Amino acid sequence: MRNWGGSVVHFNWRHTHTHTVYGYVQSCYTPLVQRCYAHGGKLESDEEFDARWVTYFNKADIDAWELRKGMNTLIGYDLVPEPKILEAALRACRRLNDLASAIRILEAVKDKSGPHKKIYPYLIQELRPTLEELGISTPEELGMD
Amino acid sequence: MLHLTTGRVGCLLSKQAVVALTGSGARMSSHGHHEVSDSVDMSQPMYWDRLDTPLPDRPWKDVLDSTDKSLKQKEKGPWTALSKEEKIALYRLKFNLTYPEMKRPSHEWKTVIGGMFIVFGITGLVVFWQCHYVYPPQPPTFDEEWQAKQLQRMLDMRTNPIEGLSSQWDYKNKQWK
User: Fold this and answer.
1) CB distance A99–B75 less than 8 Å?
2) What does it do (chain B) (predicted)?
């Protein structure tokens, strides 16, 4: 598909099943993002996309601007970020001593899920160890919903 | 110095993303210097509440008093040591509206629908007045008697006899089919 210079994102949902701690199958939707490059390069796979973003947020001396830029860009994409990307972002907030942004990130991904109500609980479930380790409360726990 | 009035700021932003843009970022009392004018200083980092851009360029409260400063110091330590109220306070220092607050429904639709009906009503009154005072007298061709004679004439000359008017008239029994 020819376009005018940017990369084109094809978005489709993949239905995956994950098992929760309680033993029943909890189905969730994982976004499949295929990025086509305008010059006809190789498609970036989901794993490469995720890895790129995890590396971005895992930068040890990430600064506040980079965190904001990264998050705002990520939220601009037509997808809900994988838990591992969010974990890296939350850890970046910790390195920057910014709890408020961490909570804001959780609010933002909940909003990104849109009508798909099952995504956010799944993300929180996956992030629970990180949230507890860093001491981040979810917006629900703080009564901010 | 780049200035932008709050009115024009609204048009620049997409409808679904922005619920409330604090165009008054420059004139918040919590901000360092006070601007008397209505416009936003676009050369300074701005604050915004946007669903699609969660982290604005500057925090909501720039000017921190001593309690805020000591809370910010505490933020540098383990967050498990913070109470719920402290966490909420830290959030409110950095952000004005939460996502649910940004997405709160407004009552604007009632104003819109109400205004619509008022305009319809006024229009109705205008139309009624003009029917009475402006329109010239109705031509005689609208009278019942004239219309009946006209119809009879049309049937007599067999207008549209195949598929139209005269085809619907039963000439034998002098009635409609």
Assistant:
1) yes
2) Component of the cytochrome c oxidase, the last enzyme in the mitochondrial electron transport chain which drives oxidative phosphorylation.
pLDDT tens digits for range B40-54: 889 999 999 999 999
Q: Read off the pLDDT of residues A10-28 as tens digits, 9 standing for 90 and up.
A: 444 444 444 444 434 444 4
Average pLDDT value over all residues in chain A: 82
Question: Which residue, A99, A128, A139, A68, is CA-closest to B78?
Answer: A99
Q: How far apart are CA B37 and CA A8, in angstroms?
A: 43
Decide if A144 touches B, using CB distance below 8 A: yes
Return the C-alpha torsion angle A36, A37, A40, A45, nearest 10. -50
Instruction: Check: pTM over 0.80? Answer yes or no.
Output: no
- pLDDT class of A145 with cuts at 50, 70, 90: confident
Contacting residues of B for A144, CB less than 8 Å apart: 88, 91, 98, 100
Under 8 Å CB pairs connecting chains A and B tally to 78
For A28, residues 6+ apart whose C-beta sits below 8 A from its C-beta are A16, A17, A18, A118, A119, A122
Output phi, psi for B21, to 5 deg: -100, 125
Cα atoms in the 13 Å half-sphere on the side-chain side of B92: 12
Q: Is A68 on the interface with B (CB under 8 A)?
A: yes
Residue in B14, B46, B79, B94 to test binding to A, most A beta-carbons within 10 Å: B79
